Amino acid sequence: MISNPDEQELAKQELTARLSLIESMIAEGRQTTESWGWSFVLWGIAYYVAIAWSTLGHSNFAWPVTMIGTGILTAVIASRMTNRQPETTVGRAISAIWIGVGVSLFIFCLCASSAGRIDLQTFVAAVAAMLGAANAISSIILKWKGQFACALIWWASAAASCFSTASQSSIIFLVAIFFGQIVFGVYMMFSESRERRNHESKSGAAHA
Amino acid sequence: MRPMPDPLTEPASESPAELPDLNPVIHGKLRLALLSLLSGVEEAEFTWLRAKTNSTDGNLGAQLLKLEEAGYVAVEKKFVLRKPQTLYRMTESGRRALTDYVQALKQLLGSAINAR
């Protein structure tokens, strides 16, 4: 046992420093510098392109081609951005949600547009409901209220589309894309850049 | 007041009489930082660990080797796009050891506070 009060104080300080080190390193490991705001904006633009192409060009390939193209572009950019970032359980959970919903959306859009049996209102309601679910699950995992608001926009659009005419449903979808993808994506990019700046200023402190 | 010993260079010889219950393999500052980092991720590259700890290749390699020898981390070497990649992940025994270390640390801190 340490009898000297000075030494006791030093030992206590050292133990407290060790505990702080553990806490800060665990937080550091979980801290991600990945940014995903761009992908929301990219997919928002992709939806607008697909809508414009299918409406003006009357093409059944508009949705599948745009979705495949955007999917490949997202995968390429993401693989470059997340290179050398260690995988975390939360990160894999979020990826799993978006991959699962992305594949579901792709199959649904491909089959619905090529079969031509589904009316526009049902199509918009199904797509909006799936995007609402993905955003809601992601927001619950990340404990991020902003993304839950985004999920509410999609769910409200899904519900409204069921009770509207085809032209009203189109407007609802365009507005939901604007707020749920473009506006939310830009907001996400701003908050990510602010978080990165804070993180970089904190990282200036000497680590181990 | 006497200066604090540098735990980065003297991890194993840290006043054993003062800290009797703390695992000396984990108690080294850099090794503790590495285990804490690895506890939050599934696996991490050598370069990522180096950036997060601001340490040199030599020191980091030596400390990781000690953790590997103790069975607290597992290493996997592979090639990705023809580039060598060394991945480290925490083992079950490493996780248990870190948990025990934190418990011991809290107990010691608790007794230090009570002793005042």
Can you tag this structure with a few keywords?
heterodimer; A: 208 residues; mainly alpha; elongated; B: 116 residues; Arc Repressor Mutant, subunit A; 3-stranded antiparallel sheet; 52% helix
Q: What's the tally of helices of chain B?
A: 5
Uncertain parts of chain B: 1-17
Protein structure class of chain A:
mainly alpha
Indicate the overall shape of chain B. Answer: elongated
Helix segment count of chain A? 7
Mean pLDDT of chain A: 84
Instruction: Estimate the helix proportion of chain A, in percent.
Output: over 70%
How many distinct beta strands of chain A?
0
Q: Report the sheet with the most strands of chain B, covering strand number, pairing sense and barrel closure.
A: 3 strands, antiparallel
| Helix share bin of chain B | 40-55%
> What's the overall average pLDDT of chain B, rounded?
80
CATH class of chain B: Mainly Alpha
Biggest sheet record of chain A: none
Determine the N-to-C terminus distance of chain A: 28 Å
Low-confidence stretches of chain A: 204-208
Identify the CATH architecture of chain B: Orthogonal Bundle
Order of adjacent strands in the largest pleated sheet of chain B: 1-3-2
Strand content of chain B: 15-25%
Description:
- The complex is a heterodimer of chains A (208) and B (116).
- Chain A is mostly helical.
- Chain A has a domain at 37-73 and 95-193.
- Chain A is 83% helix and 0% strand.
- Chain A contains 7 helices and no strands.
- Chain A has helices spanning 5-30, 37-56, 62-81, 89-115, 120-142, 145-162, 166-203.
- In chain A, helix 4 packs antiparallel against helix 5 (120-142).
- Chain A starts with a helix and ends in a 5-residue tail after the last helix.
- With 116 residues, chain B is of the alpha+beta class.
- Helix content of chain B is 52%, strand content 16%.
- Chain B has 5 helices and 3 strands.
- Chain B has helices spanning 24-27, 29-39, 46-53, 57-69, 92-115, and strands at 44-45, 73-80, 83-90.
- A 3-stranded antiparallel β-sheet of chain B has the order 1-3-2.
- In chain B, a hairpin with a 2-residue loop joins strand 2 (73-80) and strand 3 (83-90).
- Mean pLDDT of chain B is 80; it is low at 1-17.
- At the A-B interface, helix 1 of A face helix 2, strand 1, helix 3 and helix 5 of B.
